[in-house]
Amino acid sequence: MAWIPYLLLAPALLVLARWLTPRGMTARQDGTRLVLSRPLVSRLLADLRLVAWGAMSAFFLALFLISREWLAVALFLLILLRIGWLVYRNVTRGTLVVDTSEDAIRLGPRVIGRVSELVALQVSQRESATVVLVLRDEAKQDRGVVVGGADRNDGRKISDALADFLHVPIMEAS
Q1: Domain count, the chain
Q2: Alpha-carbon span 31 to 97, nearest angstrom
Q3: Cα(94)–Cα(51) distance, rounded to whole angstroms?
């Protein structure tokens, strides 16, 4: 049982790993596709909820090992399922692909819009910059799709790469 404090130290190590991990986006253009992505480790640790769920998981595992109660095992397994879902979601939603030949904009495996619907980009000036793709459908209704950036520089990098690739204007948001 002397190893239980080390088990509880795991969330602190996750926070440290998140802090030390580079989070910058990379833009890669190959033919008719523009691919914007973050490093895999950065995508895994992007969500602080993952760290919190990891801490709860460590707590219930330690509780089970001390008390041998099966309720703690059930809670531990439910928490592991939640952690698995967060990891899957963070990994799959970390890449934005703009493909002009297929007229598709994908965020991970999901198509979020068509290139022909994109009319502008909107960039926030806050510290946690976000880029919003302004899409207009056939009914002339505008909708925004948020593409999160790691920081203000990433937001600018994303918007500049998209604007150069697709020839759409950039609007500054307040």
Answers
A1: 2
A2: 12
A3: 18
Taking CA atoms, 40 is separated from 16, 25, 131, 161, in Å, by 16, 11, 20, 21
Residues 78 and 119 in one domain: no
Question: What's the domain range around 75?
Answer: 4-25+39-92
Structure tokens at 24: 């910058």
Shared-domain flag, residues 131 and 84: no
Backbone dihedral angles phi then psi of residue 172, each to the nearest 5 degrees: -85, 130
**What pLDDT tens digit does each residue of the chain (174 aa) get?**
566 666 667 667 767 776 777 767 778 888 888 888 777 777 776 666 666 777 777 777 777 777 777 777 777 788 888 878 877 877 777 788 888 888 888 888 888 888 888 888 877 766 555 777 788 877 777 777 777 655 566 777 777 888 888 888 877 765
